[in-house]
Amino acid sequence: MSDNGCGFPAPGLHSFLFKPMATVGGFEFNKVMLLALVTTVLVIAFFWAAFGNAKVVPGKLQMIGEAGYDFVRRGIVYETLGKREGEKWVPLMVSLFFFIWLMNIWSVIPLAQFPVASVFAFPLVLALLVWVLWVGLTFKRHGFVGFFKNITGYDKSLGAVLPLVMVIEFFSNLFVRPFTHAVRLFANMFAGHLMLVMFTIASWYLLNSWMIPAAGISFVMTMAMICFELFVQAVQAYVFVLLACSYIQGALAEHH
Does pLDDT of 256 surpass 70? Predict the structure, then answer.
């Protein structure tokens, strides 16, 4: 509650904290974990239902699954990695895209009303997964010397500034990259949820205070924010997967 006497329950960090729903062996299970688990089950169930018994003439569910799969394959993976190199990475990127998208969409689903990606641990784990994959692929493709050149941006033509560039690139690629990859998704979902909560609470607060015109404006802003969040949620899933493909492309590319 705010301290200015008006009683407006301003949103804050407490809006992202949830009490444990259950405790098993010292492990606390809360609403965010439940939503992440449901997200995993829904993604697996959808694609299993869509492609488990695929037909030459697809049904409605298979058509939707194929459209989503083809969007990620052609619109992200092929555009970044090319068809020959990219085909093997399509299943992973499709899984990442729809997992992240559905985690985000919970923000506007009644009763759930919380984007899982606004808890930093979830995008961080996904970003670390991509980072480990990038490091492993770079080392496997280029060997130790090539790996070192790749992560340090080694280029003899840089001359005297080469040592400085190598130090910056080394820390940027090994330490900053996974952090920024995760923060980009987390920050957008965190800020979007905070704005939605603020306008929603404000609508009820103003309505209960008999400030009808102001409550109407706040309600309109809530609807506008929901529409905007639906757009941002899809864009953030797209950007995360696009960056993942870009990192893999950098690992597979020959260093010059």
Answer: no
